[in-house]
Design a protein that fits this description.
The structure holds 2 protein chains of 2 kinds. Chain A is α/β, with parallel strands linked by helices. Chain A is about 30% helix and about 25% strand. Chain A has one domain: P-loop containing nucleotide triphosphate hydrolases (Rossmann fold, 3-Layer(aba) Sandwich), CATH 3.40.50. In chain A, α2 runs parallel beside α5 and α3 crosses α5. Chain B is built from 12 helices and 2 strands, in the order αααααββααααααα. The longest helix of chain B has about 30 residues. The chains are: A alpha/beta, B mainly alpha. Chains A and B meet through α2 and α5 of A and α7 and α8 of B. Chain B: Pfam families: BPD_transp_2. Chain B: It is found in: Cell membrane. Chain B: InterPro entries: ABC_transp_permease, BCAA_transport_permease.
Chain lengths: ~230, ~300
């Protein structure tokens, strides 16, 4: 599904990621664990095409390393950045619809995908008409997830979705992710997190990123406090 | 100041503000979306005027009605947008978006210098007059003051239609929404599949066409001569900076303020009339460095 072979990524002239070499299969839920500054966000941005790379990235067997960033979501990739990055000029629903409009999906297909997003995050229906600049941080994360789901039919990448969420909202967000899981087993999920405890029991695989290098990890390190 | 003079100053100011606003609209649209201050915008204005005069002269000499001047203005503006704006973005600006801002200023300034000479090369240094569009619409008398319909009604109407039309386009149409999203956050826009390169090209073409349209509409009211582009870029920059860079509605109000300030100064204190726009700009920027309607984060220069 997603394959990185010998990938080095840099921003400007500064190398950030080194020797990335891993494969993620269709339907896997991967926790990408690492401290702040370890390179989690850069890895997701690299998959989206925003860094300079050497090496090879394949998506569904197809090399995408040279593909310009705006062409990538159309392959079935949804990405919710860490700081939400909603467009404040628009309402919640307009934000969610934008990816479908950029990809020129038909009206029926857009409606089908919007319904799918609302089934997974029903609370967004009630705030559909609100300006995106007026929703709380936690609600904004839900909107960003819904927006990522519009094109994310194969791969959904969430950058620190739980960070800054109040416990009740974090629980609600985790429920939504489970609903997404249950609705479509073939979607691959990559979720970054600095606190591995939050993804325990949810991810079926853990990648640990440290100083720009990725290694397979265990989700429940023995030293985790109770 | 009696009523007649007051009305004259008022009408002068409105007509002038409408023209300046149309040019400033293109400048602020380009800045708002692309974060590029396009110094060559003044040349696009001048070439819009020259092209209109050339097209009108040619077609009216064939015996066609003067009313044809109006669609020809539109044609001139579109030609400026596509034939000049397109290549400027595609061949030059696209290479320097992630380079330091000073380079963007230098490159657009170089384009400005080149286009100034191209104008002299193509149209020479003799002034042109082509007022048949102005005459075609006749005059209107308001409280004893006679003024041209073209300047008092057509120009403000066009400015208003452009303001409302651009607002509607950016907020309500799909293409406009993609542009607005790119304006707010280029990377976030790209990561939901918006082709920012295409958005930039389109924005620059539209912005350049607005500059050209300003020149086309100005052409019947002024003599077309070398240097007119330099005057206009400085003035429209004053409007855009006073309003806050990238602020479309703000530019409309500021253009009106600067236009009226200048026209009243002409009657009250003519010695400083040409200075008034810049005095207003300096006063505003001293109090609000981000401009009347700008937010501090949006400022770049």
């Amino acid at each position: 599904m997603l394959e990185l072979r010998d990938v080095n990524a840099s921003i400007g002239i500064i190398p950030i990621l080194r020797n990335l070499d891993f494969f993620i299969g269709a339907g896997e839920t991967v926790a990408l664990i690492g401290r702040n500054g370890a390179g989690k966000t850069t890895l997701l941005r690299t998959i989206m095409g925003f860094t300079k790379i050497t090496g090879e990235i394949r998506f569904d067997g197809r090399p995408i390393g040279a593909m310009p960033p705006p062409a990538r979501p159309g392959l079935g990739i949804g990405y919710a950045p860490e700081d939400r990055r909603l467009f404040s000029a628009f309402t919640v629903e307009e934000n969610i619809l934008l990816p479908a409009q950029a990809a020129r999906l038909s009206a029926e297909e857009t409606k089908r995908r919007l319904d799918r997003a609302y089934r997974i995050l029903p609370e967004l229906r009630e705030m559909a008409g609100r300006p995106a600049g007026n929703v709380s941080g936690g609600q904004g994360k839900m909107v960003a997830l819904a927006r990522a789901l519009m094109l994310g039919t194969k791969l959904v990448m969430l950058d620190e979705p739980f960070q800054g969420l109040a416990p009740a909202l974090a629980q609600r967000y985790a429920e939504a992710l489970r609903a997404l899981r249950d609705a479509d087993r073939s979607v691959t999920l990559i979720i970054t997190e600095s606190n591995p405890a939050l993804l325990r029991g949810f991810a079926d695989r853990t990648l640990v990123i440290e100083r720009g290098e990725v290694a397979e990890g265990a989700l429940e390190p023995e030293t985790t406090p109770a | 100041m009696n009523l007649t003079i007051f009305l004259l100053a008022l009408f002068d100011g409105i007509a002038y503000a409408a023209l300046v606003f149309i040019v400033a609209l293109g400048l602020t649209l380009i800045f708002g979306v692309m974060r590029i201050l396009n110094v060559a915008h003044g040349s696009l204005y001048a070439i819009g005027a020259y092209a209109t005069v050339a097209l009108t002269g040619f077609f009216l000499s064939l015996g066609l009605a003067p009313a044809l001047s109006f669609p020809l203005m539109l044609v001139a503006a579109i030609l400026v947008g596509i034939l000049l704006g397109g290549p400027i973005e595609w061949l030059l600006l696209r290479r320097i978006y992630d380079k330091p801002e000073v380079l963007q200023l230098l490159v657009t300034f170089a384009v400005f210098m080149i286009l100034e000479d191209v104008q002299r090369l193509v149209w020479g240094t003799q002034p042109y007059f082509e007022a048949r569009a102005l005459q075609a619409l006749g005059n209107v008398t308001v409280f004893g003051v006679t003024y041209t319909v073209y300047q008092l009604i057509l120009l403000p109407a066009v400015a208003l239609v452009l303001l409302l039309g651009l607002r509607f386009f950016l907020r309500r149409t799909i293409l406009g929404k993609l542009i607005t999203a790119t304006t707010e956050d280029r990377e976030a826009a790209q990561s939901i599949g918006i082709d920012a390169d295409k958005v930039f090209l389109l924005t620059f073409i539209v912005g350049a066409a607005l500059g050209g349209l300003g020149g086309a509409l100005a052409s019947p009211t002024t003599s077309i001569l070398p240097g007119m582009g330099a005057d206009m870029i400085v003035l429209s920059f004053a409007v855009v900076a006073t309003a806050g860079l990238g602020q479309i509605e703000g530019a409309a109000l500021t253009a009106l303020m600067i236009g009226l300030g200048r026209s009243f100064a002409v009657y009250v204190w003519p010695e400083v009339a040409v200075l008034v726009p810049y005095l207003i700009m300096v006063l505003v920027l001293l109090v609000r460095p981000e401009g009347l309607f700008g937010s501090p984060a949006a400022r770049k220069i």
